[in-house]
Amino acid sequence: MTKQNTITVIGAGVIGLSCAWQLARAGFQVKVIYADDICTGASANAAGVLKPFDALQTGRKQKLQIESLWRYPQFLAELKKDSGIDVQINRCGRYAVFYKEKGWHKTVEAAKKAHAEWPYTQTILPADALTLPEVAAGILFCEATATFSPIALLTALYQACLNKGVVFEQKKLTQLPLLRPVVVAAGAFSGAFSSQGVRPIKRQAILLQWPEAKPLQHVIENGQVYLAPWDEGRSVYVGSTFEPEAKFDNAPTPQAEAYLRSHAARLVPSLEHAPLLERFSGLQSRGIVTTNGQSTLVLGEDTVQKGVFIATGHGGVGFCMAPITAYETVRLIKAHLKAS
């Protein structure tokens, strides 16, 4: 391998591992430098839910996220081939409960567009389709939503990297390696290596024992929290808070648990006092904020540092966007090397 064929990836979360694996598949010699243990951090604390943005959202991040979700079967087939691990997703679907008429009307329009363009349907349901403690304006059932095990996917990605010859080195970097290309996929910590402006978002979640006799079978959300079935529906992941001014404080708080319980109880009242099984807290990445308030995905070559490619700013949809981020990073680096 020549030096030009050697690529360093910074970060070993879902984005870093996905990029490293796909780069190795493309024939590059890849080295991953990471600070914290693999299968820890924000990626390991994720809910394990794949759900699309609504069909009316047309930003780059939103379009790429939906494309990425549709490419998941290809991604997982490649992963099984390279890792020997069959990561399963459960297309369980999602009930989205809307309380306000204004938001509901927009959702109806988005569902119509999705019905015409997507491979999975979105069904408009009456407000009494679920037994809820509060009156809803309407309920949407999204067939595209799926669940999976984040740890299983991270483990498979790590194994696929090893099988493809990726080298791993655990250390904390204070500056970028001189050898380029470099891929910065360090999530909330990417700002130290990028001129694009990346800041952390703190997300907290809790795992509760499911209090009902019938196991939870679908994802349910109401705009404040979402409930995701774990352990075949015998426990429920309740997520998540959104704390954009968290700096780098990663400690779980009792205030977050109280917030999550109270909003979960709007969907299932018995969750307010259900036994706590685990707390989750992680730092996700947010790109620069545009004038209309939308956070920007940072995916591409750094505008100042030649040969440095940034793959961050995914917010809470890192797993959703792992396939497209990895494929796009490979494409961009190939084009860069061809032009060099």
Characterization of the model:
The chain is an alpha/beta fold and 340 residues long. It has a domain at 1-89 and 147-198 and 287-340: FAD/NAD(P)-binding domain, CATH 3.50.50. Helix content is 30%, strand content 24%. It has eight helices and 16 strands. The strands form three sheets. The chain has an eight-stranded mixed β-sheet, with helices on both faces. A six-stranded mixed β-sheet has the order 8-2-1-9-16-15, covered by helices on one side. Helix 1 runs parallel beside helix 6 (150-163), helix 3 crosses helix 8 (318-339) and helix 4 (72-83) crosses helix 6 (150-163). The longest helix has 22 residues, at 318-339. The protein starts with 5 loop residues before the first strand and ends with a helix. The mean pLDDT is 93.
